[in-house]
Amino acid sequence: MKYKGWVSRGAIAAALIYSMPVLAQDAAPQSAGETPGQTIIVTGTRRTDRTVAESPTPIDVYGGEELQKQGVADMNQVIQNLVPSFSVARYAIGDGSSFVRPPNLRGLAPDQTLVLVNGKRMHRSALVQIGANAQSAGAHSADLAQIPAIAIRSVEVLRDGASAQYGSDAIAGVINMGLREDTDGLSGYARYGQYYRGDGEDYQVALNGGFKLGDSGFINISGEYVNAGKTSRGVTRPGALELSQEQPNIDVPELAQRYGNPKMESYRFFVNGGFDLGDDSRVYFFGNYGHSFQEESFNYRQSVDSANFGRNGIYNDYFTDFDNTRPGIQTGSAGGNVYAPNGYNPATRDYTQVSTCADPLIQNWSCVYSGGFTPIFFGKIDDISGTVGYKGTFGFGLNYDLSGSYGQSTLKYSMNGTMNPSLGISSPTEFYLGKLEQRETLFNADFSYPWEVGLASPVTIAFGGQYFRESYELGLGDAASYAIGPYTGNLVFHQDGTPVLNADGTQLSVALPVGANGFPGYGPAIAGESSRNSKGLYIDIEGDITEQFSLGVAGRYEHLSDFGNSTTGKVSARYAIVPDILALRGTVATGFRAPTPGQTNTSSIATTFNPGNPNAIEFMTLPVASPVAQYLGAVPLKPEESVSFSVGTVFTPAPGASLSIDYYNIKVKDRIGTTGSRVITDAQRPQLQALGLANYATVNEVQFLTNAFDTRTQGVDVVGSYRFNTDGMGTFNTTLAFNYNKTKVIAVGIDPETGSPIISDTRIQQLQNTLPKTRVILTENWSNGPFSLLARMNWYGKYKVFDDGAGLNGASYVQQSFGSEFVFDFEASYEVNSNFTLSAGVQNLFSNYPDKYDNRAGGLGPVYGSTGGRFTGDIYPDVSPFGFNGGFWYGKVGFKF
To answer: Which of 96, 155, 221, 542 has its CA 20 to 30 A from that of 240?
Structure first.
């Protein structure tokens, strides 16, 4: 990392040589007929005259119309349909990751992409990703779904490291959402659609109104309502099917577990406004409020044994006699001895039959959920932010921008159709599980000055400072959601004092899970709040040295209250070999991203399954600072650091045509992610109990966040566009975008206690292979009078899915390769008059699906012939880059007044 420090210090030193005051500017609106490459940009530069084609860094710009010309409401998916290096999956059973989808830019973690709104940092979601893919696991990023497309004037996607310009997080790039400033009335659209299979009905209504405020102000308000139905793309579980056939009268659900999109209802609002105060100054303000409520299905728990599938461990008998009195029932405590009738023998207990709970000393959950049960998980998100600023220009040319922002994201969990097994059959079946809340306060002071020094252009000198405070809270759930009930950790004796023995001669114990089953609530042991603050200073200088050569230098210093100091730098250059036709460009940058308070303190428990094993396991994510995690090898998190460079060419051979090709190379050191699964042995349980772990008796596997690996990501972006106007056949806008991206784990930390790698081979393979390495997007936009047509082809390269298990040739993982796929989208529109436009479209025209799981050797099976799915009922991988729901059609009515 020697050159990292050289770049950082050299950039700051060069910047200081020329330093004079400066600030960021407003984006120029992009017209629908903008010539490719000539749109003025504001992201990645402090200049006010920089176009896409003149940028020394690769950047894409999309107008608001492009965002709205789609059949989806989720901004993650909208951007994925436009940017080939941007990917987002739809997790079917991913806990919070089903509610807050984590995107990947250039195959890096979601929190390594900085999201801006009107050039200001957008606050993070309340969710630290745990149930997502390996690239996203452990990430803590902004929730792009909170931004409705109708509120956006343009989106700029900077595909380059920019930590020196914007601060922590901007390792993979920057996404800047420019809000609309229209003042000409009301516009919007109403859309209805559903999947070809007849489910997933989707309603969307979006409105935008822009109005003048007196002679010098404006306000623009956007709102969106979405109601999306759930989908089902799995099959029932083979155990449930077999049980329903053997015992049709015990109410086994027909579809024991749903595998598909969550049910979702949301409404979101954005406001943007300002007042000109004269003397080249103005006050501005913008903000948002969003609310959503979503529902997903968890895994099914089988109630009794069938011929080939066993019951879930929740349905083992438990015993209510703690004082060995007959026949009384006493209040006991976890870990206490319990007493069974003298004739009780677990080896001969018939677990194929539903219990009646007639004997008050022997109880079983099958008398409550006779056919098994599937917990239903709910997430309620409330998202709010506001920014107020004052900006202008002094008489001698110094630009200034002073602003303050506050953002807050709250995610509240609840669950029904379940229980706290350790409380016994008197347990509640509905729970409030607690909340996650992220709060951020931000103050910025930015300045810029165009300094005439006799070069080909003024030297734009920018500098400024930032104060940033963030806090993260885990709020308590209902007491019953986390309570340690009496029926766990109990050794079982007969009433005559003799131990009750299992068939293998060991003593029977009761070890029912603790907390709401499926997702225990946040209890006092983990609930609480943590915070940190940071202060930063930056300087950014750029200009045209000659008519053909442009140079930019930036440096940034930050001090964090919990991680100390950081210095980053960036150098960018562009040389026009043939002015206005052919240019070379390149950058070298260092980056930095500090762990958030949320990452340091995140915790969760989930019920899951390993491939090929029908037995449920209790899987726990521990805070790195917890005594249990440290006992298992966790060490404090530290900041990620990166060094990146890119080199490319821009070719504009004719008016309306442009082509850019860029190679990039990003090395991330001490990358944060989750470790591989650590299997808990019985020998470790006494120590876990001594360390205060409530579910020491039932937890099977554990993971925690770690810095223990380095990666190198490299690839190539190609973007070509051509705008062609004809006399009688209308206007054709053609765009071809290509991305090749490859990530390799180049170093893995070693656990000093065990001498073993901290992350598993499975996790390494997931990091390197889960995302397709190649993607192509070909888009054609045609318009002629009142008619317009959008046609888009997406091609996704092959990818692999890995999981823990006994693989081929002694591998510690199982795997399956999934083939490449084409996906086609179309939308046709007719402008009835100046007020109304009718549109109809399809996404995934030919209803393509990813390959199914199969029974190959060393694969992710078994796939059961009785159902065609795996034990968990899934048929398709939910990490599929284009989803697993098939084709979707929609109709839309647009209006403006």
So the answer is: 96
- Hey, CA dihedral for 165, 168, 172, 178, is it positive or negative? negative
Q: 366 burial class (0-12, 13-18, 19+ CB within 10 angstroms)? A: buried
Please give the Cα distance from 416 to 595 (Å, whole number): 33
Give the C-alpha separation, 5 to 743, whole Å. 24
Tell me, yes or no, if the pTM score tops 0.85.
Answer: yes
Q: 358, exposed or middle or buried, with CB in 10 Å at 0-12, 13-18, 19+?
A: exposed
Q: How is 49-63 classified by DSSP, letter by letter?
A: S-BTTT-SS-EEEEE
Question: CA 518, 757, 755: angle at the middle one, nearest 5?
Answer: 120
In Å, how far from its chain's centre is CA 396? 46
Q: What is the C-alpha separation between 231 and 261, in angstroms, rounded?
A: 5
> Is-contact 132 87, C-beta < 8 A?
no
Tokens of 416: 């029904």
- Which pair of structure tokens corresponds to residue 137? 């696991």
> Residue 416: is it exposed, middle or buried by C-beta count within 10 angstroms (0-12/13-18/19+)?
middle
Round to whole Å and give the CA distance between 246 and 249: 9
- Answer for the pair 524, 434: CB distance below 8 angstroms, yes or no: no
Neighbours of 718 (CB within 10 A): 16
Query: Cα separation of 272 and 99, whole Å?
Result: 27
Residue 747: both structure tokens together: 């170093």
Two tokens at 397?
Answer: 């040319």
Distance CA 602, CA 79 (A): 28
360: burial class by Cβ within 10 Å (0-12, 13-18, 19+)?
A: exposed
**Range 101-120 average pLDDT:** 95
**Spatial separation of the C-alpha atoms in residues 339 and 334, rounded to whole Å:** 14
d(CA 445, CA 427): 55
Torsion over CA: 94, 97, 99, 103 (sign): negative
> Which residue from 547, 546, 590, 592 is spatially nearest to 572, judged by alpha carbons?
590
Q: Using alpha carbons, select from 136, 62, 142, 77 the residue that is nearest to residue 104.
A: 136
What is the tens place of the pLDDT at every residue in 165-205?
998 889 999 999 999 999 989 999 999 999 999 999 999 99
Q: How confident is the model over 616-627, as a mean pLDDT? A: 83
Question: Cα(883)–Cα(879) distance, rounded to whole angstroms?
Answer: 7
The residue count for the chain: 897
